[in-house]
Amino acid sequence: MSVKERLLELMREENYKPSKIEEIMKILGIDYSQKSILEKILEEMEKDGVIFKTKRGKYALPQKLDLVKGKIEFHSRGYGFLIPEDSNIKDIFIPISGMNGAMHDDIVLVRVTKKVDGKSEEGEVVKILKRRNTTIVGTYEKNKNFGFVIPDNKKINQDIFIPKGEDKKAKTGMKVVVRITKWPEGRRSPEGEIIEVLGYKGDPGIDVMSIIRSYDIPEVFPKKVLKEAEEIPMEISEEEKRRRVDLTDLNFVTIDGEDAKDLDDAVCVQKLQEGNYLLYVSIADVSHYVQEGSNLDKEALKRGCSVYFIDRVISMLPPKLSNGICSLNPQEERLTLTVKMRINSQGEIVDHEIFESIIESKERMTYTNVYKILEENDEELKNRYSYLVENFKLMKELALILLEKRKRRGSVDFDFPEAKVIVDEKGKPVDIIKVERNISHKIIEEFMLAANETVAEHMHWVNIPFVYRIHEHPDIEKLIAFNKFIHNLGYHIKGIEGGQIHPKALQELIKQVRGKTEQRVIETLLLRSLKRARYSPEDVGHYALATQYYTHFTSPIRRYPDLIIHRIIKEYINGKLTEKRQRHYNRILNDIALKSSERERAAEAAEREIEDLKKVEYMAERIGNVYKGVISNVTNYGFFVELENTVEGLVDVASLEDDYYHFDPERYILVGEKTKKVYSIGKEVYVKVLHVDVDRREIDFVLAEEGNGYEMAKEYIDTI
User: Fold this and answer.
1) Distance CA 203, CA 194 (A)
2) What pairing do the DSSP bridges indicate for beta strands 80-84 and 92-94?
3) Residue 705, pLDDT score
């Protein structure tokens, strides 16, 4: 047992009282000569928030002192909430006076100071464990002897003071990146130095660059990383070929979007005489080229994942790997890690193998072309890929079997309408088109899910260190609140009275709302009521997929957890996963899982923010246009309307001039005082674009009624 484990075991004891270091040494029988070593260990544990040191120099577990560890989520008005690390603890309200120098997203310890309404709690920050905003993006304002930066992120509600000489010659109105040099204290604002001047606000590309910088997404690879990539041979050695299972004769294909260049996965399906299917899922063997501890490996871990923006991709690995030797390009031999699955007519995987292989993808297919072959019977494409048409039919057959199996067990499938923003060469949005998921998407989705589950279950039972993709059971109180909301729309979650909701009940709800005008809002609010999926070395199952075993194995070019998983699998199947290596993985996997989850969230937030920005920019050019939409949410200050192109805007209650409208919070409706007219979620309306604020990402609509452009609506609907 390590010293850390002994310390934690001691402090967990019921009779333990906060003690000084000398008392702890006496209890544990540690020699005085080891005091400096123990001090460092205690200091490290305190820094991580595992233990807490009182003002009198005594150590104890935070929870024993009624302290809660978590992340601060700020509101633009200055107050905020602690989101506890322990998901069983409710969020804690933190007033402005209780922040004590904390900023948005900081990891802190909070002491609960009082209960509010007997339910929620109020607290104050007693210790800041980790600062998250070391650099901030904002707009510079210059004064005579100093300057300040107004953060883009409205949750960072304090301007950053810039002393004279620390402005990097930035001018008023420029977007800059500032490094914090002094943290806020009392009424004093944070202080910083400008480290990068991006350009004037409004200049082409500066808006996107600002968002990329604000999420700390590195665009340029360090020279030492590129040098390592350049040294990687582009040819596969004969020795390596002989060592692997040769699958080059099989009809593997990749199926991706038109723009994809980093092709991680290739698939092949065969039908056996007894009626079973053989499904091969071969994944790029990135771990063969990215060695543990190399500069490439460290940079990949730092990035966590590739980030896909509207007009660019910021890859986890340099292009020579992501688009080159690792990408499963057609008619080129590639090293892969293969999962071979024998699947029966019920979709059950009755046998499987995991092994190192070499493949040659026969074609680089797109979702569009596979759909046209299978569903539109496109003769030209069928002739072009004649030798693969039967393979595609088999793929569809098997995918539908696997999908039906998932439905039977209760897997929850959200079906949010997706939109793609089309931009010109200058980054200006010129169109927004809806993207439909079709059978070709489902083929790849089902095959990847099957491979991920198979690998996860295999590694679970061999009982070695691993990284799982987990989705914990939802907070029942959040689901009860959600159920209360949907009750007003005529829906109900079956079995909610029992306290434990099986995912099948949520699946049935989604089935009921599919195709209805209220589908989007119900699915969105349901998703918010569930916990976020994340990476973890602990296998606690995946609630939404209704499976005990799940991991991310299929995208090592663009996700770091998949890369580390490949590394572990290969060591295991080659008999190299010694006890020493297992101890090594046990030490590092929790940190890798946490970092990967964080970078995934940052990537998703940046992608979403840039998409929202471009949607708002698109609508800014269409002031006065009239569109058909659906009310997606109702509040006391108005209602939100979502257009058919997924753009959302607000109709302010003050703009409803035909009556005084009152908000009914029980039914989520606005009701006219005299007319009794009702505006409710799911109601179709016509709206005119009144005002667009690009900086705030806000769109204001007014209802398009007679005399206000209503008759023009039909002319504009087709334009989106």
Assistant:
1) 19
2) antiparallel
3) 64
Q: Taking Cα atoms as reference points, which of 80, 90, 73 lies closest to residue 477?
A: 90
What pLDDT digit, counting tens, does each position of 376-415 carry?
A: 999 999 999 999 999 999 999 999 999 999 999 999 988 7
Segments in 182-287 forming alpha helices (H): 206-214, 223-230, 238-243
Regarding beta strands 277-284 and 333-343, do their DSSP bridges make them parallel or antiparallel, or are they unpaired? Answer: antiparallel
| Largest interatomic CA distance in the chain | 88
Domains delineated in the chain:
3-62 (1.10.10.10), 66-130 (2.40.50.140), 135-214 (2.40.50.700), 223-408+430-455+554-583 (no CATH), 476-530 (no CATH), 622-717 (2.40.50.140)
For residues 68 and 113, the answer to whether their CB atoms sit within 8 Å is no
Q: What is the mean pLDDT of the chain?
A: 92
Plot region of 255 (φ>0 → left; ψ -120 to 50 → alpha; else → beta): beta
CB neighbourhood size of 685 (10 A): 17
In the chain, % helix, strand, coil (3-state, to 5) comes to 35, 30, 35
Which residues make Cβ contacts (< 8 Å) with residue 438, sequence separation at least 6?
367, 371, 375
Q: Which of 621, 634, 624, 609 is nearest to 701 (CA)?
A: 624
Residue 596: alpha-carbon gap to chain centroid: 10
Count of beta carbons in the 10 Å neighbourhood of residue 247: 19
pTM: predicted TM-score of the whole model, two decimal places: 0.88
Report pLDDT for 717: 39
Q: What is the pLDDT of residues 490-504, one digit of tens each?
A: 899 998 877 779 999
Q: What confidence score (pLDDT) does residue 426 get?
A: 85
- 493 Cβ partners below 8 Å, 6+ apart? 479, 482, 483, 486, 501, 505, 506, 509
User: Rounded to whole angstroms, how far apart are CA atoms 333 and 617?
Assistant: 44
Laid out side by side, the sheet with 661-664 consists of 661-664, 669-672, 678-680
Q: Whole-angstrom Cα distance, residue 266 to residue 449?
A: 14
Degrees (nearest 5) of the Cα angle 336, 337, 339? Answer: 130
Closest by Cα among 642, 639, 680 to 656:
639
Q: Of 474, 503, 479, 499, which is closest to residue 491 (Cα–Cα)?
A: 479
In the numeric block, which tokens belong to residue 54? Answer: 């009182």
Element holding 141 (H helix, E strand): strand 135-142
Specify the range with the lowest mean pLDDT, choosing from 171-175, 539-543, 566-570, 713-717: 713-717
pLDDT at position 579 over 70 = yes
3-state secondary structure at position 160: strand
The confidence score (pLDDT) of residue 119 equals: 61
Predicted confidence band of residue 118 (pLDDT cuts 50, 70, 90)? low
117 pLDDT band, cuts 50/70/90, is low
